[in-house]
Write a structure and sequence with these properties.
With 173 residues, the chain is mainly alpha-helical. The chain has two domains: 73 residues, no CATH class; 82 residues, no CATH class. Strands 1-2 form a two-stranded antiparallel sheet.
Length: 173
Amino acid sequence: MTDSKGTSPVRFLLPSYYRFIGLVLLVPGIVLFLVRFYWGIKIPWLETKVFAVFSSYMVDKYFSVIENNVTEEIAGLLILSALYFIAFSKEKVENQLTHNIRYISLLTAIIIDTVLMALGLMFFYGIAYLYLLMFNIVSLFLIYILIFRARLFINRRENIPNAVAEETLYNET
């Protein structure tokens, strides 16, 4: 699968070891997310001054330095970068079939995510809608990873009998 300039999608993928880095980053990201949003704890030493393009707490502020606890931002960045690394790292065997599976998985994930957001627009209101928007930051990555991994698993499972049969045939001759 190459474009008119002869470039391959592999060129845009991260090396395969980035999947491991993504998994390592995902753990502290989820822990920080749970600490902040499930247990409601703001880690005191993460209270710092940050530059804000726009901030709206008691007063709207534009392009100013504000005091903020960055637990949410760190958790979000860890989770987002982890999912990106997991989703777009090369497989050990990256071939045309893998590219096709990636492409179909990404299109399917975009369709599913769009339908879910449309349903969310119709049925979620108030703060629940804001939570849905927060989830939507990572939902496309999650859906893509699940579909891609499932399709790879199914493809490999279906091809194992063929590979064994070919090897047996090769050994008999």
